[in-house]
Protein 1
Amino acid sequence: MTESNARLVFITGASSGIGQAVAARYVKAGWRVALVARRVAEMRQWAIAQGWPADKWSIYEADVRNEAAVAAAAQTCMRTQGLPDVVIANAGISVGVDLSLAEDLSVLRDLMDTNVIGLAATFQPFIAPMKERGHGILVGMASVAAIRGLPGHAGYCGAKAAVVQICEALRGELRGRGIRVVTLVPGYVDTPLTRPNTYPMPFLMKADAFAEKAFHAIEKGQRWRVIPWQMSLVVRVMSWLPRWFFDAVAGSQQHRKKQRRT
Ligand SMILES: NC(=O)c1ccc[n+]([C@@H]2O[C@H](COP(=O)([O-])OP(=O)(O)OC[C@H]3O[C@@H](n4cnc5c(N)ncnc54)[C@H](OP(=O)(O)O)[C@@H]3O)[C@@H](O)[C@H]2O)c1
């Protein structure tokens, strides 16, 4: 891949769903993309099928649970493509957990490693160089699930709540250094992650439509953006509900506890 002056975005979880759609939106806007995931063959095949010019994209293999692998991908990206203008920590998994089962503790660990440690490991290599340069945007992919603890989803809700707080803390730490931190809060987006869901998914949106909104929110450097907007009303109501009321309603949804994916 050749160097170019076009702006550069580094995206984890770019082999599927939201990550792919966001990458495509950036290329459409003339950006170069650094695509990161474990399934590199699929990513390469997909990028080639898009018909993008060769200098628009590069592929990096990394399991975000492995900090050294993410750091290596970040260093190679900075060496070959340059320091990204935007870094999107999007890689994530969603699996239900039943905390009464000993074996589910490893599921919980995997959720935390992928969604939380993976996000921090993705941001880390870029923070010092971005500070030195004096600009950059870090984007954390949270979820509406971060707002309250949903029965059966302690791991996912807990991990995404951590994403929200980490992004907020970073915003304070990086204030005045030219680096913005954007927390994206998706509702339901039609991707391989949500397709197995059997329950209703209000305001479900296509990944391309999500990517369009996300692109503009990131361009504006918005601190917090719920997508779609209808879900921001849901987020407000959920945040306001008193604990006794939330516990009563959530506790009546026990049938979801056994669900393995959301
Ligand atoms: N879809 C929704 O409704 C929704 C709602 C709220 C939040 N989100 C969040 O949005 C993000 C993307 O979700 P999606 O719906 O696009 O899901 P998806 O289609 O299942 O894609 C998940 C992506 O994450 C990558 N990934 C997973 N584990 C990884 C690991 N250990 N190392 C590196 N990459 C890993 C996958 O790549 P490989 O398997 O190739 O590594 C894949 O590219 C996630 O953080 C998810 O929690 C989604």
Protein 2
Amino acid sequence: MRIGLIGLQGSGKTTVFNALTKMEAPVAPYRKGRVEPNIAVLRVLDERVDRLSKIYNPRKTIYATIELVDFTGLAENGGRGESFSATAMVSIKTMDALIAVVRNFEDAYQDSAEPLKELHYIGEELILSDLMMMENLLERIETGRKRGQGTEDIINQEQTVRRILEALNCNRPVREMVLSHEEEKAIRGFQCVTKKPLMVILNSDEKGYGKSPAVVAEISKKYAVMEFAGKFEMELSGLDDEESSLFREDLGIEESAGRRLTTLAHATLGYISFFTVGPDEVRAWNVRDGGTALDAASTIHSDLAKGFIRAECFSCEDCLRCGSEKGIRENGLFRLEGKDYRVQDGDILNIRFNV
Ligand SMILES: Nc1nc2c(ncn2[C@@H]2O[C@H](COP(=O)(O)OP(=O)(O)O)[C@@H](O)[C@H]2O)c(=O)[nH]1
Ligand SMILES: [Mg+2]
């Protein structure tokens, strides 16, 4: 799962990125020019993994991961629709979801904070980017038609593109549209950025944290939102877990930034976790909610999906309760499932396959 942090310059994206990934990417008070995005892998902390690891005592314990990409900021003074550089856009299109970081702290180098206005601006820029892409596509379709190209697929694509353009022109992102299976197919090759799930981080400072309930409420009408004390969390990321949770408590933050983000991302994107266990490794994986045993198999390795025979399955909860796999079998909690089995959050799977 890949998530991109986007937002205006100076909203604190790199600060939030550092807080989440414990990296030390340069944070700039104000910086001109474009730089390569920062990329890091974030572990999805899950105490079930730790507990399973105690039972199996494996050589390796591996958490599920989320790849986080910190893009350089949008420049407000760019022309309309030019806020994202072309190279950034190519990369943004490969993300599974986006997080808009909006500034909710005062900064000597910047105008006063207007998080709602910032969010509105980001939304508009994303819509403009899709508008331009869809307009280009429509032009190409029309040119093709003049040359006599007009298969059923192309006609269907044209209708879909026109409908999307209509929505975008009314400031509606593609994610809010209900697309039929046919329409989905028609635009599959064109990654609309407004189709991607968008979450929001309201980046507050230590003093203001928790004091903007009206702003949070307004944002949450449309988006999954989380308030973050970015700089504060970044400073905490250098401390050990116990120390940092004491500081967090003072501010009324219940869980670490990473923990809160991964929970939010899983919920917004509809991901669940399943596990594989054994003496070699205990490992957590992400799969889309609604995914089948076959999807789970292909998440692990394409060979497992190709040669899929069946999935041996039991639940993590039962395993922790019984204390061992032996206990699972004795209590009749061990199941064999076929490729269409819908994976549940917390399932422990062993894929039987043959290549
Ligand atoms: N007071 C305060 N300053 C912050 C906070 N988050 C970021 N900053 C400052 O805002 C400036 C821009 O931050 P940066 O992370 O580089 O923003 P980016 O351009 O979005 O990546 C830096 O000077 C940060 O120290 C915060 O929560 N509180
Ligand atoms: Mg930055």
